[in-house]
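Milestone 3.1: sequence recovery, worked example.
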C-alpha cells in the first residue's frame, strides 16, 4: 500500500506502508497492489484507496472527514469510477464533478468539491511511479 499525505502548503510527500481499515466498508482491502492517496485541504481530509486490475479500477474505497460537499463529491466520484477504464478516469474534470453534485457551488467551496478529484489524480499518478 502506498500511503501519501499532501497538504495545501507543501508539495512534500510522506510514504507509509502500513495496511489499515479504510472507507465505507469498514474492512481492509488486501490486494496485490493498493494505491492510497491522502489529501488534506482547508480542514477537509480524504483518503482514496484503489485496486487496479487490467487497466481498470477493480475496487475503490475512501475515508475522510470534512464538510458535506467534500464527502459527497468523494462518495459520488468513487461510485462513478468503479469498473471504469483508467484512461476514461484521467479525462474526468471539474465540470464532471460539479455535474455529479447537482447543486450550485460557490467559489469558496470549489476546493471542497474538487478535493476528491485531486486526490484521485494523485493516486493514479502514484500508480506509475
Amino acid at each position: 500500500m502506498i500511503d501519501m499525505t499532501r497538504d495545501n502548503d507543501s508539495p512534500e510527500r510522506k510514504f507509509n506502508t502500513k495496511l489499515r481499515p479504510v472507507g465505507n466498508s469498514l474492512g481492509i482491502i488486501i490486494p496485490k497492489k493498493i494505491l492510497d492517496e491522502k489529501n488534506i485541504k482547508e480542514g477537509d481530509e480524504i483518503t482514496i484507496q484503489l485496486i487496479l486490475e487490467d487497466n481498470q479500477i477493480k475496487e475503490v474505497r475512501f475515508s475522510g472527514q470534512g464538510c458535506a460537499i467534500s464527502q459527497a463529491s468523494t462518495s459520488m466520484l468513487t461510485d462513478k469510477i468503479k469498473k471504469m477504464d483508467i484512461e476514461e478516469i484521467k479525462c474526468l474534470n471539474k465540470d464532471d464533478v460539479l455535474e455529479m453534485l447537482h447543486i450550485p457551488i460557490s467559489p469558496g467551496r470549489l476546493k471542497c468539491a474538487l478535493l476528491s478529484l485531486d486526490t484521485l489524480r494523485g493516486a493514479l499518478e502514484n500508480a506509475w511511479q
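Helices lie at 68-81, 86-90, 94-101, 110-127. The first strand starts at residue 2 and ends at 7.
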